[in-house]
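Lab notebook, bench 4. Still working through the backlog of constructs that have no structural model yet. Next entry is a single chain of 483 residues. Request: give me the structure tokens for it.
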Amino acid sequence: MPRTQEATTAMMYAEPTTHEHPRTAGQRIIDTFDVLCLILDRVHDRPSLARLARSHTAFFDLCTKRIWASVDSLRPLVALLPKHALPVSLWPFSLVESKLSNDGLCDEDLIRWRIYSPLVKAISLDFCLLGNHAPLRHFWQFKTTHSARLNELNLDVLSAILQLRARQGGSILPNLRQAVLKSYTPTVCDTARALGDTNVTRLCIHKLGFSGNEPEDERSEYSAFHLVAEWRQLKEISILGNEGTIGARATLISTLDPEVSHIESFEVLCKIARSRGLLIALSKLDLLQKLVIDDTSQNWPAKMLDDGVLCHAYWRPLSDFLNSHEVKDILGRNSFARLQNLTMASTLEFCAAMVTAVGSQLTSLKIATTLPTTQDLQALLGAIVRPKGDTNKVLKHLSLIIRDNKGSFCDSCWCMLYALRHLDLHSFHLEGRYERDCNDYDLADDVVSRLIFEWPNLSLLHLEIVRQDGWTVYPNFVRRYRA
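Model written out:
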């Protein structure tokens, strides 16, 4: 079999190098394995991995594991099942021929499943369980909830999964750790339950909410959020999309019970990040260590100057929108008891209020915001250095992404950064973003050197000035320092 270009390049880099002392056979195997892993880290598409797997024996196991590690639909898993064990609608997806004398799964089929199913660690479930390229001629209905043909196909997939689960016994994906819901119709949620069992530790819910207020939408959202209550082993939750319905938000908040929840990481990248009820519920989670709040995912950065403008930036305003001046009142003394890592993308006043409330216990802080005026930067830095009035001695990693607003992030701001000298930082990342030519905005060497001198334990410094035109970023000035 001719060697592919990927295999030729890979084996060229994998040639053993000469050493002063001869390497043992075991050491050479370990060295080759490490080199192959580094090469495969740069190959992300499934076709290239498949070609590498077929081209050389050394790549087969490594490529196979990476191909199956993250499955974007149930199509590859359905392909492992024989046609005689599937509904007729799924026969085109099966790669295993039917056995005339067998009406169910035989030992050979189960062995094939047991070989590949342990490799699956993450699975993504879209509105079509077989992916976006299912052979449906009326696919113009794909994104609608009224596609009866597509719903029948999904039910057939679920039926096949349940049949396999009954024959297999226990979990059919024993090493599954992450489930991604890009849609949450009842069929998709039932399929997630059939796959998840007690192994899933991370749940990602994308495309939160539908356009409209139909009753079936709220029922679908309830099905998705109820997974949080059912999967008690969940440690990480990520929510990305729009604001969702009122009923869905209430369901989510009700599932965050501090007595039964084991959530350690919570990411919310949508408008409900500023929900008063959600923030109160999160503040009571005893095990929460990482929190990501991003209410700018749909309107960065045009609506980030004022809480009032941000609240009405969506077509369906958030009824319990949390204003910055309310943060201090609702967060009590024991709020976010174990929070160590906080990431925020919101208005500057909200970021400053959150840092003031919980900043004294943080070891890592990342803020992305728009600077209304030059004086506001000093207020933000003051909140970082002295949350709750005491000098912060715990914070080790700080990242600031600041977007200029009509000349507010100017040369005079660099001197304000010297207020951070009281911190004992191990890493510092600063990024200034401008909508116009930023050649005149350069970081003064004396400010940089003074900061480095004040942080004896600093191991990583990244300073960058970029010009941002809409969503496109053009780097203009970059300075890195690594100890």
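Notes after review: Residues 5-51 form one domain. The radius of gyration is 26 Å. Flag for follow-up if needed.
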